[in-house]
Specification:
Largest interface: A-D, 40 and 40 residues
CATH class of the largest domain in chain A: Alpha Beta
Number of domains of chain A: 2
Structural class of chain A: alpha/beta
CATH superfamily of the largest domain in chain A: Medium-chain alcohol dehydrogenases, catalytic domain
Radius of gyration of chain A: 20 Å
Distance between the termini of chain A: 17 Å
Oligomer: homotetramer
CATH architecture of the largest domain in chain A: Alpha-Beta Complex
Amino acid sequence: MQGSMIAVAKRAAGSGAELVPVPIPAPGPCEVLVKVRATAICGTDVHIFRWDKWAAGRIKPPLIFGHEFSGEVVETGPGVTKLNVGDYVSAESHIPCGSCYVCKNGQKHICADLKILGVDTQGCFAEYAVIPEACAWRNEPSLPLHIAAIQEPLGNAVYTVMEANVPGKRTLIFGDGPAGLFATGVARAAGAGPIWLAGTFNFALAIGKTMGADRTFNVRSPGVDVVRSVLDDTHGTGADVVIEMSGAPKAIAEGFSALRKGGTFVAFGIPSDRITLDLNNDVIFKGATIIGINGRLMFRTWLQMANLLNSGRLDPSPVVTHQIGLREFQKGFDLMTAPERTCGKVVMIP
Amino acid sequence: MQGSMIAVAKRAAGSGAELVPVPIPAPGPCEVLVKVRATAICGTDVHIFRWDKWAAGRIKPPLIFGHEFSGEVVETGPGVTKLNVGDYVSAESHIPCGSCYVCKNGQKHICADLKILGVDTQGCFAEYAVIPEACAWRNEPSLPLHIAAIQEPLGNAVYTVMEANVPGKRTLIFGDGPAGLFATGVARAAGAGPIWLAGTFNFALAIGKTMGADRTFNVRSPGVDVVRSVLDDTHGTGADVVIEMSGAPKAIAEGFSALRKGGTFVAFGIPSDRITLDLNNDVIFKGATIIGINGRLMFRTWLQMANLLNSGRLDPSPVVTHQIGLREFQKGFDLMTAPERTCGKVVMIP
Amino acid sequence: MQGSMIAVAKRAAGSGAELVPVPIPAPGPCEVLVKVRATAICGTDVHIFRWDKWAAGRIKPPLIFGHEFSGEVVETGPGVTKLNVGDYVSAESHIPCGSCYVCKNGQKHICADLKILGVDTQGCFAEYAVIPEACAWRNEPSLPLHIAAIQEPLGNAVYTVMEANVPGKRTLIFGDGPAGLFATGVARAAGAGPIWLAGTFNFALAIGKTMGADRTFNVRSPGVDVVRSVLDDTHGTGADVVIEMSGAPKAIAEGFSALRKGGTFVAFGIPSDRITLDLNNDVIFKGATIIGINGRLMFRTWLQMANLLNSGRLDPSPVVTHQIGLREFQKGFDLMTAPERTCGKVVMIP
Amino acid sequence: MQGSMIAVAKRAAGSGAELVPVPIPAPGPCEVLVKVRATAICGTDVHIFRWDKWAAGRIKPPLIFGHEFSGEVVETGPGVTKLNVGDYVSAESHIPCGSCYVCKNGQKHICADLKILGVDTQGCFAEYAVIPEACAWRNEPSLPLHIAAIQEPLGNAVYTVMEANVPGKRTLIFGDGPAGLFATGVARAAGAGPIWLAGTFNFALAIGKTMGADRTFNVRSPGVDVVRSVLDDTHGTGADVVIEMSGAPKAIAEGFSALRKGGTFVAFGIPSDRITLDLNNDVIFKGATIIGINGRLMFRTWLQMANLLNSGRLDPSPVVTHQIGLREFQKGFDLMTAPERTCGKVVMIP
């Protein structure tokens, strides 16, 4: 497709981003060009926007960033056999090599040579984006565009909760960012009970209640003691499952303290540094299992997510608090970085 | 405890049962005497009542039958260490030996030398019943008596659905007896979607809708084609999971036809005779897994059930359609055996 | 690559096969041309050779059949990115679509639209064969050609035994064809103990002993009672695991009889017709799990197989009893179809 | 049984132990008295002997310690129903309450109110010992006394390796104490390949070779780089499974570095302090699973161990380097605490 488009790009090392006109990209072999209908801002995008240490080490400008989106296939490259122009798709952001030991083992989502859309390749904060056919997920026509656009992060939560195996389990979730709020909804849909949600913003915790938390804790409020509360609610036993989506060292420590013997701790939130761990009491004597989660199963998680969404078991829409124009991207990042959180997921419409 | 009580008993071989006065039984070593507060009629009790071929071969009259109940511990035998007089309990009906290879392997519920309460031992259709301490389950005080009484069959459904691993899975359930209706509720609580329920009574299928079925089929209605409908609803793929709780050969056959390649078939319903199976197309080429279910895990299933009930994820009460007095037992069996079903679970209050 | 090659082909409907000169095929997009170094005869090839009912319904002549082989990549088609000329490869015979619900679920080996090499496409009983890049498995250089050629059927056994989860388990295997003999070796390597192997040919059962069976049974010998023997060897408990690789209805029935309560039955052998099953006593009351196996995981099974072979844990060579020239294919089929078995796996060298 | 016996006891706080005459204990309800035929020294016993910080906080003298043994039942207490005088038994050292949430969940080995034989109760470094019937394991008569005596620690290794799921997996084991050497043997029996074993004593590593390690590393030798070697041996991929049985922080760190993406890390060795962990790179981005192991499944592990031993798949005897008299206990502790290790497992015969 000829012509130019607007895109939100990092033109050089440093903080911020710019709205720039660029040529519409052309799909290469086994790639498709997608007209972006809705795209969402991820915490990773905030890291890139702010140009923190991680971003400075990983990102090679110029880069159009963004990796969560939905849209319509408008052109197919050579060798594309499964997708057609007009298909309504979302993108899996993990681009696997397909041939390493890890991929061969059925774990493409953590490929040993993993590339990430909008991080290692040109992303989707634009009117058009190119993705590998192998990373396109075809949506049901009835799925709203803004919901289709947040399936990548929702999929993280689906995968995390499925690995935690929560039906009939007492479940403690840390983190009231979109990941934790999505996980709350998925855990509720999957029969976790009770669900405790610990976070730091009343705005977000209220959404957490809507998503299905039985009890929420603002850990910055005086007198709140998550571990004590969970133990009290369980006759001293503790949680069967802890889902850690905050990355806060204090949350990680409290999670292990609140976990019952023989319980499961699922680690998704990224701490900013190494942590210390009482391996003896928190893992070995406790007989605990820790599961590290990155990405989503390709594509078992997407199938389960589709079934949850299409059957109405899961409604993630309360988490999508804002829809703005792509040109208003600065407003989106302002929302995402405000000291007091007043947003869940921010979706931009090109 | 001295004195006599009334009980519903089979005094000799043959159909029917009688209300008889008998001495209150005394708990032996490691046993407890429970005052029965609510007791429910199981399909197995109907077999015993009718004195069919299975019953004639297994039951040794005189027998007080019944094995689903809740009540209060009123006396403890020697060696009882975990229970106290006044405890509010329900009974696990499977009485394992505890020392065979199967029990040692953590599968007590299918002990190689299994005894069943009210089948191989005196049961609970009475004012009092004796059970092994090891088979008593302590309830939350808030659990209603009639719900506590139906946990044994509800536990079958919980175990069945947990083994089926349904979150985010397309689930087809056969059987609109209490087992199927309970399974529908558990599957809904655990995030199955969509849920199809096939049965034979409009009365029961309406309860199934209340329990969470997205679509129900009365297989006796003209033009109903369960397999075709499931395939149509899934773009030809089929169900991820089939839960068979009817025992009907036609349901078993249709279940395999509706199951997708790589799916899971859970077998709980008891056919009256051997079945024929297309092992090649239904199991081997399909890469299917078949899981036979009998009883409930002791006591992992009970823990999960308690969490589901106590957190409100699961409400089985629509299935409990009748509460009558124990002295009205004949009315209960009439309901259970009527040609056109107008009951779900019938609970009797001594 | 220009030129012609010889191939063993079915030119028209009917029994037998012919050695024919045909043009060397050209690899299409995402395909590679492989010079066949060793190719093995499968039971499926015997069905095709004999032109039985199954073959008549499935095979569309003219067809070069054969699907088990090893060789060297000599040409790559457009879009091939992972393989190079000179690579030493074997073929996965299952050709998945990659985009159906089953493939998306990580179960490509039982793709809903599965094609099989040498059955639905031109096969490898030839000097050269074309396969999709996605079905090529790169071998360690140290792996002998004839072992590399039998990895497809060996992989069936690896997958079957891995699903059966045999370490420290009492394991009964039915079938003394190559599948059963391979499974015996894999089970031995994976710590099954004891291993009973039941078959019909003394020649094959002797190989089974070499592969690691602790005790073998020729079920055609007078007085042999597999079920009784297994029960006697286990204090009446039975086998933890039954691996059925014969397809004989009698073996299937005996397998369920010998299986302990709570055991696992893995079904791989293909009966020639529907079977009858005592679902109640063999599956439901027994709390058994039945796992249907077709193909091999792509490519988790291949990785495990490579580790077993490369570390020396598994030596399948006793099963490869014959190596002949491709031109001697008639001798190979004679061996495979003799009333009294005197071969294991027959490998042909082009 | 009347009379007195000799026992190795800690009479008061402080290092060392004494040989003392004490009355033969009497079995209480549901307990049995066992004549000790062989008893082995555990690392835990060394902690008690030395009276380190852990011991000072946990042990209440006077105490007969020791918890690994085999022997013969010579007297049964009231309520014992499964065991008889003359039974040849070994002891499970974990004494569960049987009624807590964890026990009810089928995880008795990590009971929330766990007691340990010879730590919280009187142990087996004596001529006789009392154990709960529920902790007795009946041995095959053919099992040698000294092997029967070391099943408790061998069971740790069996459980650890079974959880690691090693068949066809590249397996790295840290620790050349008895736990690591046993795990090496179990991993070999269960089809791990290759097996790397890292330790600190050439004497022990030589036993590790006998037990089945393909390659051993003495980490105190100059130039040894375990991580680099494992990566080199696996084309840079790393180990599928890491089994950590040393408790050394360096081993834990190296274990995570050598683990492939998507691999499994099993933690059994007890570090003396908190560890630091790169949760991001070692667990989350890696998609790793960490499994904490304490004890053995009651009694699934014992069944698997019995099958491994009785079928000859596993021979732990090379690890049992010394058999001495119980009166020579000081020699045993000298061996266990020597700066340069010259023993594996030390068994004492009363």
